[in-house]
Amino acid sequence: MSVVISLEEIAEGIYVLTLECPEIAKLTEPGQFVNVRMHDAHSEPLLRRPFSVSFVEGDRLELLFNVIGTGTRFLSTRRPGDAVDLLGPLGVPFHIDDTFETALLLAGGVGVAPFPMLRAALERAGKKVITLLGARSGVQIADRRLNNAYVATDDGSRGFHGSVVDLFHATVARNAILRPKIFACGPNRMLSVVAAAARTIGMDCELSLEGEMACGIGICQGCPVERSREGRKYALVCTDGPTFNSRDVVI
Predict the structure, then answer these.
(1) Separation CA 109–CA 137 (nearest Å)
(2) Which residues in the chain land under pLDDT 50?
(3) Stated pTM of the model
(4) By Cβ atoms counted within 10 A, which residue in 19, 47, 204, 235 is the most buried?
(5) Which CATH architecture has domain 94-205?
(6) Contact at 8 Å (CB) between 108 and 140?
(7) Cα separation of 146 and 152, whole Å?
């Protein structure tokens, strides 16, 4: 069980919920998630929902989310002192000990969620980090804890006019990037394009996938993703991921 410390709207319709939960905070690595009970005793939905841990500081962790339904609306009404039931940390973290020199972080919309914690860990590991954020409009850019990020908006209201993938191509074209690795999180359609671009350019690429995870521990089998290699036809986002090398899955 965790206790709400604060709830802050950091962009239009996008919130950061700060929770005190020492047991989970001390174990969480970048890219892992928690499964959150999204109701009280008299409400729905019944099933838990997964949320990337966005940042950890001491005994506290942060969850970033947008309000898209009953469950996230419930979270957006939590107040300091309220209890929130969490399971975690769950899933496979990002691989940041690889032999790359420059990390390119690509986020589409609320796909930015795992990146504040990831970026801090990469910087501690001595990696150069280039952060690229995309959204429909400038008011939806959630760049908290991501100073000096490059921004792309579909409507051109802030930063580069176009998608975050377009911004990625422009960034690669005008910069000599040494020994790069891509980390990407966002809608599946975006991740599919990023994975294809990584193959074409010859860059290593790690994706953080989303999935319908009722249990978060592989029992319900509700979050399959097709594998591209021999062996099992499907992997589970909750236990085999949510982080995958882009060469290993079909998006």
Answers:
(1) 10
(2) none
(3) 0.93
(4) 19
(5) 3-Layer(aba) Sandwich (3.40)
(6) no
(7) 14
